[in-house]
Amino acid sequence: MASLSLKKITAVWIYTILILFVLAILMGITMRFTQGKTISVSPIEFYLLMTTHGVTMIGIWAAAGIVAVNYLLARYIKVSTSLNVFALVFTVISILMLWASTFIGKFHAGWTFLYPLPFHIAWETWATPMFLWSLMVLSVSWFIWTLGSMVQILKKYSLRQSFAIQHISKKSPSVETPPLVLISMVSLLGMVVCFIAAIILLALLLAEYYSAGKFVNDPLLIKNLTFFFGHTIANEALYLGLATLYELLPEVSGRPKFKTTWYVALGWNCAIIFILGAFFHHLYMDFVQPKGFQIFGQIASYFATIPSVVVTIISIVTLLYNNKIKWSLVNLLFFIGLMGWIIGGIGAVIDATISNNIILHNTLWVPAHFHTYNVMGNVLFSLAFFVWVANEFSDNNDLQKYNKLVMPLLMVGGFGFVLMFYWAGAYSVPRRFAMYPSELSSGTALASAAAWFACIYLVGVLLVLFDVLKKCAKVFSSSSH
Amino acid sequence: MRKSFFFFIALVVFSNVVLCNTNGLYSFSEEEKLFKPIANIEIATAEGEISLSDLYDKSPIILVLVFTRCTGICSPLLSNVKENIRQQQTNEKYKVLVLSFDSSDSISGMLQLAKRYNLDEDKQWIFATTDRIEALNASVGFNPVWDSTSQQFDHEALVVGVNGNGYIVKKLNGLRASSDFRSLIKEINSEFVLSYPLPRKNMLFSCFTYDPATGKKKISVGMLVMLLPVVLTLLVVAGLATIKRKPNE
Amino acid sequence: MEEHKFILFLFLSAAVLVAGIFHFLYSTTLNPPSESEGLQNPLKKRGFVLVFMFIVFVVLLFVTVPKSPYFLFSNETPAKVVYVNAQQFAYMMSYKSIDLNKPEIETDVELPLNEPVEFRVTSVDVTHGFGIYNSKAELLIQTQAMPGYVNRLRWKFTEPGKYNILCLEFCGSGHAVMRSSFTVK
Ligand code: HEM
Ligand SMILES: [Cu+2]
What is the pLDDT of residues A376-397, one digit of tens each? Predict the structure, then answer.
């Protein structure tokens, strides 16, 4: 079980994440209102908001996943509090450096900082190294965090057991691997790989920066590395969200716990391979990329969905179908999050088809699909965990009692917000435009509508946030449990 | 698990190799006269007079422009073309036409040249002269200048790819790498090559360095750097496997 | 149905279907029949879904991959070649390859109707995009403009008129105003 110190650090993490979340949403709403010409923000300010919003959001929801599985893993293994304190300290340092580089240094190369844009300096000269170093601090400390989390698991389970290999080969093995351990392990390994890639990427960029022109990078190689890192981190974060779902959804729904079976084990082990190959779809429009990679990218993107979807969906249907369920905010958030995840996945599969990508690449379709499985997917998984853990902290086991407005607000606001993105994307409105040209004025109208939807979503988030923060505060006053 | 891991590594290694293999050199004059028809001139070969269309109607042509008195680039160029063609293990059909652009060259001089390169027996290679070199030069954008003091032509080392319809589809200027010849052969056989690289400076970490003097590629440090994520991940997993377990805690 | 509309339609239908399934699933949890024992034979159903998805994906792959832009007009000879050099925040275009030391820029690019044309797209500074929009502001086709590489994009314009080019890769503060155009006659 989670120790009191683990509870405290988890509560601090939740505070940090939720506050940053609200700030990042406000940045998002500002961007949408700017695109809708409701307010006026200069392009440089727009793009520095976009850069900050992107990195902050990706960062906090990846962190939320790691925090949640760390907390829940304490049911099976010994979890180190200091590891989580260490990660929090360096995350905060890195976020401060990042915000300094954007808000003070005006760095605005986008969250993917596509080479060589960071070196065509249109901001304070110190902002480029500050931005790169902030990500370096984050990558290194999170590399240690994720690796440390894996080591904790491996102190109890062998490498084979942690990936549930014994479930694939034997019908009823002597040691059972809980799904939480398996999915955490798969996602953490994916994250370790992508932090290594990030560290190499950043080292190459910093080397160019400090070599003062003596050494330049290959844009194609750097782009591959960038998306290997960027795409993978976003996807592994989602998987961690699913790990918490596997652990908590049956429990709060009053149903028997999920068990690892051969197909669960196989499905998740396959997922890791496909997901690592799917990033190639970010380079479809780079004709210099070898054709074989492009087609492999489409195949990997398609099949990456099969193991996790088939395994997860059927498990959930088995769990719920024709069974009386006590619905509470926690399982509703998981349930709707699952739906958002699948809908976003459909958007992704459409875009990952090369012949569609030619008219969808870098249109608003791209933020459309990834916002769907974040705003209406992973965020809801993590919020579910936050609500659940806050109830645990405050000994408030009455899960039934919650503000009935939360779900409608999140759903109307969230789905409305992403629908505007899809609509504009299908009609060729580009992403990352601070304002839309006159021939694409539909983009402008859709943008302000989206901003209002996002405000509705924000209200829903705030309702959850106040409740969670109030309950989390209790953990600091309790001396022992 | 182990298998999937090796699969992943193989994938990354493979990607590195393929990704890197796109380096070459390039010059602006290469882009002149593209997709324009080549002048259909008469040429004199060992087998007698034929017209260019007799050749390209049967198979695409790689045209190499040289002159026998050349003391400069012609002979490295011929060696370079010969070496690169020899390296291509493909079954695409094409002929290599070595044409003199010096009107004082004779067919016997050209055949001697062929002999010097051991190409006189090779059916794929044709050595020829022509009376209408101006028309050909104009159609491919080749401008040799006679320098009377050195008694030499000042000229580019030009290789022209002509497809089966007699259109110029790609030109190579200078001594080039085998990957450039690969694209050239694909292009003349109507296979679309989606992209080509431009010359760059200081690419320490590109996977190959290209030496224009020898026309060869050398593996450079970049290759090692790119294998790093793979090596590191391997080490990490190897390290993880050694962790001591305390199952009963 | 027109391509852009079709994509949106396809997506929305699928999304509504998913929402419907979730709604149905939710409703079965409210008042399940008392003798019910939940989902029967989950393993078999899982196998069915797996096979179904697999077949759908394989069919989709066979249908869509040949339509990839890499294979478009590949065995035709272009009637015209346009060289494009992107730079922050404008496009240089020319019928000749662009030598940066003495660029000869074409301000009114005109392209033939119903004949294949080829764009050779590269960049001088950072990575840019090259998206071609028709007069109805619909994106037709695009490629990336990456420094150090030339991407070749082939297309056949079937309608005369003015076409706009927008930058489709974020390239800095002027990204949204980076544009150009050409006419097809
Ligand atoms: C209601 C909440 C949110 C709002 C209003 C919002 C709004 C926006 C807007 C307007 C953009 C720029 C779109 C464009 O390219 O024109 C954007 C980009 C982005 N958003 Fe959000 N967003 C929200 C939630 C999230 C969440 C939860 C994530 C989690 C991962 C996220 C991640 C990103 C990323 C990665 C980008 C791309 C930044 C870039 O292009 O460099 N957003 N968002
Ligand atoms: Cu641009």
Answer: 999 999 999 999 999 888 876 6
Going along chain A from its start, the domains and CATH numbers come out as 4-477 (1.20.210.10)
Distance between A193 CA and the closest CA of chain C, angstroms:
26
> Could you give the residue ranges of the DSSP H alpha helices within A40-118?
43-73, 81-99
Q: Which ligand is located closest to the Cα atom of residue C89?
A: 2
* Residues C139 and C116 placed together within one structural domain of the fold: yes
- State pLDDT tens for residues B121-157: 888 899 999 988 989 988 988 888 888 888 888 888 8
Give the pLDDT mean for A207-211: 87
pLDDT at B56 over 80: yes
Quick check: A76 and A180 in contact, CB under 8 A?
yes
- Choice from A23, A53, A435 to test ligand 1 binding pocket (greatest atom count within 8 A of CB): A53
Name the 3-class secondary structure at B247. Answer: coil
With respect to residue C72, please indicate whether it lies within any of the assigned structural domains. Answer: no
pTM for the whole structure = 0.88
What is the interface pTM, i.e. ipTM, of the complex? 0.94
Domain containing residue C60: 2-67
Look at C77 and B167 and tell me if their CB atoms are within 8 Å: yes
Q: Is C123 within the bounds of a domain? A: yes
Residues C44 and C108 in one domain: no
Instruction: Give the residue-averaged pLDDT of A332-341.
Output: 95
Q: Do A291 and B19 touch (CB under 8 A)?
A: no
Cα torsion A54, A56, A60, A62: sign: positive
Bridge partners of C133, per DSSP, are: C139, C164
The answer on pLDDT for B24 being more than 50 is no
The span from the CA of A277 to the CA of A388, in Å, is: 34
Better pLDDT: C70 or A27:
A27
Q: Is C93 among the domain residues? A: yes
In sequence order, what are the beta bridge partners of B125? Answer: B96
> Could you tell me the domains of chain B?
2-21+215-248 (no CATH), 28-188 (3.40.30.10)
Beta strands C161-166 and C179-184, pairing class: antiparallel
Which structure tokens are listed for A31? 């961007």
Give the pLDDT confidence of A226-237 residue by residue, as tens digits.
Answer: 988 899 898 889
**Best mutation site among A57, A111, A431 for ligand 1 pocket (most ligand atoms within 8 Å of CB):** A57
Answer yes or no: do C7 and C55 share one domain.
Answer: yes
